[in-house]
Specification:
There is one protein chain. With 283 residues, this protein is α+β, with helices and mostly antiparallel strands. The chain folds into 2 domains: 74 residues, no CATH class; 173 residues, Phosphatidylinositol 3-kinase Catalytic Subunit, Chain A, Domain 5. 37% of the residues lie in helices and 12% in strands. It has a 6-stranded mixed sheet, covered by helices on one side. Strands 7-8-9 form a 3-stranded antiparallel sheet. Helix 1 crosses helix 7, helix 3 crosses helix 9 and helix 7 packs antiparallel against helix 8. The radius of gyration is 19 Å and the shape is globular.
Length: 283
């Protein structure tokens, strides 16, 4: 199989140009949004202590999602200047000693939540052009061990100015909350997959999902794009900021050994098929 390598360019650094605009009150990381010198606004993850591996997981997942040609927000490294840290938001200047991982803020991104269950069927026709992205995101999450994209916390938006393409966000919980070194000790669970949510029931008909061609195309897509990810990994690793103080070689070796092993790839695909079939039974 001849696979053309996706170009991974050096990730740019931008700096804040004014005081932090807001801090998101979420369970976990509490990202901030800040306007930057490149003219864009970024939602930023930062390190409150010494741990920075979750920032690398954001970088890795976003890079792989980009390799899969999914609608991940553009991203950069962001240096928040000390004078732009608003301590009234419960932030400390030392949180921003290291560069942040910043995802470009989409002004027309709309967050998906449980209330979308009550939307009429005609609303979801607006997603028809790119709705197979949903299946690809579910497959990606199983393969990457994303444990925090569920019906209780979708971590999914849609881009209302781009054919309502689904936009996966918040990817720091990959590898079952960072367990890349022991990945084979874990298994995906149906209830933690968006395949168990109401979304596939409103996006697809039973006839559509029962078409053998869908799985055949997805399997080829999976094989080709995981190989691209493996080829791109060394360039992604090179982008890790020195100040994150991570052993890049250690992480690269663990990812190659565990994430890209034949056993894990086969297990991921089989789990996806099993979850997929459970969803069809609910229709």
């Amino acid at each position: 199989m001849l696979i053309h390598k996706t170009n991974i360019v050096k990730i740019e650094l931008t700096h804040s140009r004014q005081t932090i605009l807001e801090k998101y009150q979420t369970i976990g990381s509490e990202p901030i949004r800040v306007d930057c010198e490149d003219g864009n606004s970024y939602v930023c993850k930062y390190s409150v202590g010494t741990l920075t591996d979750f920032l690398f997981y954001e970088l890795l997942a976003a890079s792989f999602l980009k390799t899969w040609a999914l609608a991940v927000p553009d991203f950069k490294f962001v240096k928040v200047k000390s004078e732009h840290v608003d301590e009234r938001l419960g932030l400390k200047k030392k949180y921003f000693d290291k560069v942040c991982f910043g995802s470009k803020h989409g002004k027309l991104y709309i967050e998906i939540d449980k209330s979308f269950r009550d939307y009429p069927k005609r609303f979801y026709k607006e997603f028809s052009k790119h709705k197979k992205d949903f299946l690809k995101i579910c497959l990606f999450d199983i393969w990457m061990g994303h444990s925090d994209r569920t019906e209780d916390n979708f971590n999914l938006m849609y881009d209302s100015e781009n054919d309502n393409r689904l936009v996966p966000i918040d990817n720091q919980s990959i590898f079952f909350n960072g367990n890349i070194f022991h990945l084979n000790n874990y298994s995906a669970k149906y209830e933690y997959s968006l395949l168990s949510s109401f979304l596939p029931l409103v996006l697809f008909s039973k006839k559509e999902l029962s078409d053998a061609k869908v799985l055949s195309e997805l399997q080829l897509f999976f094989e080709e794009n995981t190989l691209r990810c493996k080829q791109n990994l060394p360039e992604i690793i090179k982008n890790i900021p020195t100040e994150w103080e991570l052993d890049a070689t250690l992480y690269q070796d663990a990812i190659v050994k565990n994430l890209f092993s034949n056993e894990w790839m086969e297990k991921s695909w089989n789990d996806f098929i099993g979850f997929y079939q459970l969803t069809i039974k609910k229709m």
